[in-house]
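Example record for the data management plan.
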Amino acid sequence: MFKKNYNVIGVMSGTSLDGIDLAHIKFTIFEGKWSYKILEAETISYSLDWLNKLKIAVGFSEEKLTQLNENYTKFLGETIKSFIENYQIKKIDIVSSHGHTVLHQPQNGFTLQIGNLPELATILNQKIVCDFRVQDITLGGQGAPLVPIGDSILFSNYDYCLNLGGFSNISFEENSKRIAFDISPVNTVLNLYANKLGLDYDDKGKISKSGKLNSELLKELNDLDYYKKRFPKSLGFEFVKEIIVPLIEKYSISIEDKMHTFTEHIALQTSTALRKKSGKLLITGGGAHNDFLITRIQFYLPNIEIIIPDTKTIEFKEALIFALLGVLKLRSEINVLSSVTGAKMDHSSGKIFIL
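Corresponding structural encoding:
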């Protein structure tokens, strides 16, 4: 007999490297419908040492990646443990953790999220559900995006769900199926250039707004092959490192102009991704705080009603949905949609570690 209430810790570390998102979630299922409440939630910023390691991990050897995975699992475990102790959270059903994506190469049948080793259960003395992407790639899918099933279950009153994180991804219903895909890089690029100015990020998009549009760069960005591909499709940091940054760096223009032009690129690609140009668009993720980006998206989508929710939902929606994915796995219910990832079938993905 399945429970009707679940007490869960959702954990997410995104490619934008903002930090580790931890959220204490209460889920309730009643007459087949799920509801949630985000209780305590916190983002733990990475130390400079961890930030530097994670930035260059994409180029690590297999041996160095193995060591990094072990060290990160210990670090992640201690971080989650402190969160649980600080807020005195009791009677936890599961800790559901995404880990941190270091490599994502679905075209090569490979993805790696570090921090998903069995030791996590020992450190926390809790039941763990994690490593949600690997099985999907084994089944021929992209291993991403995984959030759309949560959009469908928890946010079905919106026509579109857009997350503006390290990358942007969109989710919507089409012909009674959930469709979703990664649109473009967002904060992986904008934060990179803000860092060059000695800043962690571009506060409200003020730096980007102060720059000027470079039409040639914008055209080259929009002409990239990825944007011509049909879904299912997904992006990894390799795309930014190998394609986006070298392209931007061909141009001898100011950092402000680079950021302004890239923001325009994000907005334009977002508008292209929406099938119909009307309805309600829910925007979450760090980019929801970028006023300039939101203004440019609205410019290209004048008939769309943009909804930016409460701060907890903006910042912890992915942690919330990975918490839900963990509960669905615990119940042996589908938590990955083949219509989204391109896998052979819908499936219940993730590993369960029990002490």
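Summary line stored alongside the record: The longest helix spans residues 62-86.
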